[in-house]
């Protein structure tokens, strides 16, 4: 790592017209995006309330009718001319930053827009049965009043069950429960021929059950999922601890903030939630949370902070105050804690609205925040989209816990993006080798945070404009992502595919394991009906020749077998 000590020298970049458009984009955001976003949020809320008025029996009946429509729609497809199957959702609606280029080519759409209901909250089995378009804001409104929650609640309100399963989902509780998909008990899937199956860990579709996560909906159409619930309390007791030192010291302080020695499982001292924010190469704040009762939170001397109010400081800036006032503890209402990053979209809100964190804006217009990501994407043209891909980073690096200091060092040198978000998660040693999997022999190394059944990983969230861009220097975003992907491959890391990817097919299958995925693609008739996961994630518009090739393509086994 000695080579990382020498800073990169970059020449100045000449400004172009897009720079000025991006600089003043806040005008469109304030007068167009925010009002429409607020209206859509309100209409969505009314739809959720209307759904809640219906009985579970009525919702299930409607669900079954909608599934029949999906089956009928698949039967209408002509394989020789209609193209590969995907959902009818508009490309700009997806929360991810990756261009949905596969929808620019010939394809066959199936409308799943009706699948946005919570079908059941089963308090005996501790299961929530949800349709794929149920989002995190909707599910927490239904469960938190019952002192229940999904085991993993992704932070942003708009993230959906389907996206978190088929793609990637994490939260501060993932060091206990794993990724969002690890908390799923059963999937209801419509296969290529119209057959509807329920896949669980133990039944005849157990291979499909383990293959669904990270598959991007390329094995079948997810129409419902049964997800684990856990008991919770009314408040989160959150401890903010400032840490200082060099970048490697910060990484080790994060590890020490929650990770026990090898083999020690959860006990009373294990925090319920963990996250760390690195604000620069020398300072960070480690946060650990424990559920607390209403009675405890309201005891004399305890501070309650309702961070969900529109006029409150943005959460990442509030946490940063620990660097000046030292370690402190406060109690946050649980649902508000779950969605603490929604209002400012982590810290992306600072780029979208440079003055959005100011007290006068928060009091006057903060109630309209956040802008919907889908509308931000809809109001940017091709030139703006390409600009963001080159001059802006939104990536997650999933790395083994012990390699976090190395990852932080790499990001500091190659991208200089701050703040950074650190969130741990378990990567379980499963009966099947899935697309993402622990390092071989990790249990023999006996590293901090690991157990015999799971390796501890960390999501290093890299979201913001890189330092060179902020200084007006030359920065090649595509090349930086390419180098990041190579680093991840060399260090047994993974890149969630909601983000822009520069991977070619060979390197894609060096990063991910193809064996089980390929087996299920063939076994359940997905080949020639659904796109392959690489085809969906591949950057760039698909040609008609690529569409025709993809209709018959299978995963190439030699790529899948490389470690």
Automatic annotation (TrEMBL):
Its EC number is 1.3.1.72. The chain crosses the membrane at residues 24-47. Residues 46-232 form the FAD-binding PCMH-type domain. It is an enzyme of class 1 (oxidoreductase). It is found in: Membrane. GO terms for molecular function: Delta24-sterol reductase activity; FAD binding; oxidoreductase activity, acting on the CH-CH group of donors, NAD or NADP as acceptor. It is a single-pass membrane protein. PROSITE patterns: FAD_PCMH. GO terms for biological process: steroid metabolic process. It holds the Pfam family FAD_binding_4. PANTHER family: 24-DEHYDROCHOLESTEROL REDUCTASE, DELTA(24)-STEROL REDUCTASE. This is Delta(24)-sterol reductase. It comes from Lactuca sativa (Garden lettuce).
């Amino acid at each position: 790592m000695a080579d990382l000590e020498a800073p990169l020298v970059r020449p100045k970049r000449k400004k172009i017209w897009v720079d000025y458009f991006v600089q003043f984009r806040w005008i469109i955001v304030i007068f167009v995006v925010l009002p429409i976003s607020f209206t859509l949020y309100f209409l969505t809320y009314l739809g959720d309330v209307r759904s809640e008025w219906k009985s579970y029996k009525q919702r299930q009946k409607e669900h079954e009718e909608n599934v029949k429509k999906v089956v009928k729609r698949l039967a209408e497809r002509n394989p020789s001319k209609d193209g590969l199957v995907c959902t009818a959702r508009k490309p700009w609606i997806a929360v991810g930053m990756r261009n949905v280029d596969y929808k620019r080519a010939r394809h066959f759409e199936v409308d799943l827009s009706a699948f946005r209901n919570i079908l059941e909250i089963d308090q005996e089995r501790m299961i929530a049965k949800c349709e794929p378009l149920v989002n995190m804001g909707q599910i927490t409104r239904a469960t938190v009043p019952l002192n229940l929650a999904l085991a993993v609640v992704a932070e942003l309100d708009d993230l959906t069950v389907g996206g978190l399963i088929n793609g990637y989902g994490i939260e501060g509780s993932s060091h206990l429960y794993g990724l969002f998909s690890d908390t799923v008990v059963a999937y209801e899937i419509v296969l290529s021929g119209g057959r509807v199956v329920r896949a669980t860990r133990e039944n005849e579709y157990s291979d499909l059950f383990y293959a669904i996560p990270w598959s991007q909906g390329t094995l079948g159409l997810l129409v419902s999922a049964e997800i684990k619930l856990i008991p919770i309390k009314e408040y989160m007791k959150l401890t903010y601890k400032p840490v200082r030192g060099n970048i490697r010291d910060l990484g080790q302080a994060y590890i020490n903030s929650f990770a026990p020695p090898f083999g020690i499982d959860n006990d009373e001292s294990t925090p319920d939630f963990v996250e760390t924010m690195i604000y620069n190469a020398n300072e960070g704040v480690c946060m650990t949370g424990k559920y607390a009762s209403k009675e405890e939170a309201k005891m004399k001397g305890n501070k309650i902070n309702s961070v969900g109010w529109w006029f409150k400081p943005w959460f990442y800036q509030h946490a940063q105050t620990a660097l000046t006032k030292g370690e402190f503890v406060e109690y946050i209402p649980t649902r508000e804690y779950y969605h603490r990053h929604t209002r400012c979209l982590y810290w992306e809100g600072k780029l979208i609205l440079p003055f959005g964190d100011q007290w006068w804006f928060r009091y006057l217009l903060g109630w309209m925040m956040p802008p919907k990501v889908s509308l931000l994407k809809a109001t940017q043209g091709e030139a703006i989209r390409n600009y963001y891909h080159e001059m802006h980073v939104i990536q997650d690096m999933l790395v083994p816990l012990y390699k976090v200091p190395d990852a932080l060092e790499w990001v500091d040198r190659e991208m200089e993006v701050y703040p950074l978000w650190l969130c741990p998660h378990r990567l379980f040693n499963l009966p099947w080798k899935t697309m993402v999997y622990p390092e071989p022999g990790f249990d023999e190394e006996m590293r901090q945070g690991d157990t015999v059944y799971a390796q501890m990983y960390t999501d290093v969230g890299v979201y913001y404009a890189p330092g060179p861009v902020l200084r007006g220097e030359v920065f090649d975003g595509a090349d930086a992502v390419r180098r990041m992907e190579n680093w991840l491959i060399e260090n047994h890391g993974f890149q969630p595919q909601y983000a822009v990817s520069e991977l070619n097919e060979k390197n894609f299958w060096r990063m991910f394991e193809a064996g089980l995925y390929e087996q299920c693609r063939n076994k359940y008739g997905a080949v020639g009906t659904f796109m392959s996961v690489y085809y969906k994630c591949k950057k760039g518009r698909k040609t008609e020749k690529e569409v025709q090739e993809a209709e018959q393509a299978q995963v190439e086994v030699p790529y899948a077998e490389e470690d």
